[in-house]
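May I ask for an example protein's residues together with how it folds?

___
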Amino acid sequence: MSTSAETFAPFNAANYLNTVEDVAAYLEAVIDESDDDPTAIARALGSIARSGNFSQIARQAGMSREGLYKALSAEGNPSLATIIKVSHALGLRLHFEAIA
């Protein structure tokens, strides 16, 4: 009897973000678990954008596809303006709430 090792594909959140509610819940979880890592939101927005039509999201955010991809990559450092534009393109709004 031969045994074969199971192989797994890396987890890709983009495969599970089907509704705006999924997206909002994912972003909330990322923010809660990020330990104040400022790149976490950009990476999460990149996953969200890849779950949809990346080119369309870039157009709606007023950016080139390549510019958006770079801004939301692991090495990217998007401005707050970019974060807000992408959020709006995804049908989301940023808000703040008191934690203390």
Observations:
- The helical segments are 20-33, 39-51, 54-60, 65-71, 80-89.
- The mean pLDDT is 86.
- The first helix runs from residue 20 to 33.
